[in-house]
């Protein structure tokens, strides 16, 4: 009896196992059948994966479906402002990684996505090489220019200075591209690293990436710029020798020491000659650091025209801070509160002997005139 019971239980177990396998096969077959007939699209799934963001597989259909849900009514799209001349030549030469898809999303759809809590900057668009770079100069006003540009909805820029073309070129172009923010079609990717302008290898390296890149140089009276440069260094190193001892090779002869970086950066004509070996003058915009302070809206109008952007940044975005002596933003990007540049901007300069400043002006004068001729602009520094 005992053995007979064992056999019954054993046979029952085999039958139960076969039934389980049978039902499993039925479920698998049903799942594949529904997928083949298109019913799986309604099944829950992760909206975005890291592979999708990196462009490792084709997600065009999913994106179109999602963007279709986000797209506002046709009337709103019809009323959206049109944009002109969006750096078409730069886009034509853009080198996108295999599998990365350009995004065609209207500004209205972009705003709709943001209102629904979807992080558009991290979700949509493609990482591209910058179509425009602020290449110089140090202590000329490059940070102010970048912050003012970031107000524009069609500009996406790296906040920190990448220093790719002068310090980290050995990391490769893909490393550089991955630093860039995601942009939609019609938006411009930008970065700023002022030391590019004085780096001998930088022009050729930028051209290797894209010879259609637009280049912005913010220049300032080289004497004032040198003093500002020294002031910044002095704030970090209080034991620094005096300005005049660094600027002059010999106090008795009055010869200027051009090996000191604060002096050498102000030789704008010399540095521009290096860049013109790789880029035509039409690819440059020279922004006056002085006018960026006295008339920020006017200079920003020139910059927006150069980039092929609609003039969005205007007088309404600025107010002048009497204490700092700089224009400030009434409503910077992502904030409803006014904001000025950092504490380091508008720092008071040390007293420099007038005869030292005059020797510097005399030294820079021929270089300034040569720069006026090359750039086609008289900046009035003399």
From TrEMBL:
<feature type="domain" description="Sulfotransferase">
    <location>
        <begin position="130"/>
        <end position="365"/>
    </location>
</feature>
<keyword id="KW-0812">Transmembrane</keyword>
<feature type="disulfide bond">
    <location>
        <begin position="328"/>
        <end position="340"/>
    </location>
</feature>
<keyword id="KW-1133">Transmembrane helix</keyword>
<feature type="region of interest" description="Disordered">
    <location>
        <begin position="332"/>
        <end position="351"/>
    </location>
</feature>
<dbReference type="GO" id="GO:0008467">
    <property type="term" value="F:[heparan sulfate]-glucosamine 3-sulfotransferase activity"/>
</dbReference>
<feature type="binding site">
    <location>
        <begin position="139"/>
        <end position="143"/>
    </location>
    <ligand>
        <name>3'-phosphoadenylyl sulfate</name>
    </ligand>
</feature>
<dbReference type="Pfam" id="PF00685">
    <property type="entry name" value="Sulfotransfer_1"/>
</dbReference>
<keyword id="KW-1015">Disulfide bond</keyword>
<keyword id="KW-0325">Glycoprotein</keyword>
<protein>
    <recommendedName>
        <fullName>Sulfotransferase</fullName>
        <ecNumber>2.8.2.-</ecNumber>
    </recommendedName>
</protein>
<feature type="compositionally biased region" description="Polar residues">
    <location>
        <begin position="103"/>
        <end position="117"/>
    </location>
</feature>
<keyword id="KW-0808">Transferase</keyword>
<feature type="binding site">
    <location>
        <position position="220"/>
    </location>
    <ligand>
        <name>3'-phosphoadenylyl sulfate</name>
    </ligand>
</feature>
<feature type="region of interest" description="Disordered">
    <location>
        <begin position="74"/>
        <end position="117"/>
    </location>
</feature>
<comment type="similarity">
    <text>Belongs to the sulfotransferase 1 family.</text>
</comment>
<keyword id="KW-0333">Golgi apparatus</keyword>
<dbReference type="InterPro" id="IPR037359">
    <property type="entry name" value="NST/OST"/>
</dbReference>
<dbReference type="InterPro" id="IPR000863">
    <property type="entry name" value="Sulfotransferase_dom"/>
</dbReference>
<keyword id="KW-0472">Membrane</keyword>
<dbReference type="GO" id="GO:0000139">
    <property type="term" value="C:Golgi membrane"/>
</dbReference>
<feature type="active site" description="For sulfotransferase activity">
    <location>
        <position position="139"/>
    </location>
</feature>
<keyword id="KW-0735">Signal-anchor</keyword>
<dbReference type="InterPro" id="IPR027417">
    <property type="entry name" value="P-loop_NTPase"/>
</dbReference>
<feature type="binding site">
    <location>
        <begin position="345"/>
        <end position="349"/>
    </location>
    <ligand>
        <name>3'-phosphoadenylyl sulfate</name>
    </ligand>
</feature>
<feature type="binding site">
    <location>
        <position position="228"/>
    </location>
    <ligand>
        <name>3'-phosphoadenylyl sulfate</name>
    </ligand>
</feature>
<feature type="transmembrane region" description="Helical">
    <location>
        <begin position="15"/>
        <end position="34"/>
    </location>
</feature>
């Amino acid at each position: 009896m005992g053995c007979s019971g064992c056999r019954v239980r054993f046979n029952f177990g085999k039958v139960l196992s076969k039934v389980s396998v049978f039902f499993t096969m039925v479920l698998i077959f049903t799942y594949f059948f529904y997928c083949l007939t298109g019913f799986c699209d309604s099944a829950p799934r992760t909206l975005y994966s890291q592979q999708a963001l990196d462009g490792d597989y084709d997600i065009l259909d999913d994106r179109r479906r999602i963007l279709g849900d986000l797209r506002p009514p046709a009337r709103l799209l019809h009323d959206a402002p049109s944009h002109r001349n969006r750096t078409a030549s730069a886009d034509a030469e853009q080198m996108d990684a295999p599998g990365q898809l350009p995004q065609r999303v209207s500004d209205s759809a972009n705003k709709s996505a943001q209102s629904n809590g979807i992080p558009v900057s991290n979700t949509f668009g493609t990482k591209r090489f910058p179509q425009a770079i602020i290449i110089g100069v140090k202590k000329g006003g490059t940070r102010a220019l970048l912050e003012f540009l970031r107000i524009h909805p069609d500009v996406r820029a790296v906040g920190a200075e990448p220093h790719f073309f002068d310090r980290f070129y050995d990391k490769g172009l893909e490393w550089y591209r991955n630093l860039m923010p995601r942009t939609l079609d019609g938006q411009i990717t930008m970065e700023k690293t002022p030391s590019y302008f004085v780096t001998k290898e930088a022009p050729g390296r930028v051209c290797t990436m894209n010879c259609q890149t637009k280049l912005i140089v913010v220049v300032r009276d080289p004497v004032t710029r040198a003093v500002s440069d020294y002031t910044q260094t002095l704030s970090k190193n209080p034991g620094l020798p005096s300005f005049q001892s660094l600027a002059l090779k010999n106090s008795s002869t009055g010869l200027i020491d051009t090996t000191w970086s604060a002096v050498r950066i102000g030789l704008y004509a010399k540095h521009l000659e290096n860049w013109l070996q790789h880029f035509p003058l039409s690819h440059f915009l020279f922004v006056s650091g002085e006018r960026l302070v006295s008339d920020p809206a006017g200079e920003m109008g020139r910059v927006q025209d150069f980039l092929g952007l609609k003039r969005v940044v205007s007088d309404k975005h600025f107010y002048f801070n009497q204490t700092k002596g700089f224009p400030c933003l009434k409503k910077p990007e992502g904030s409803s509160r006014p904001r000025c540049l950092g504490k380091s901007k508008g720092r008071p300069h040390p007293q420099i002997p007038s005869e030292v400043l005059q020797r510097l002006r005399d030294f820079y004068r021929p270089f300034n005139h040569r720069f006026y001729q090359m750039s086609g602009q008289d900046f009035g520094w003399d």
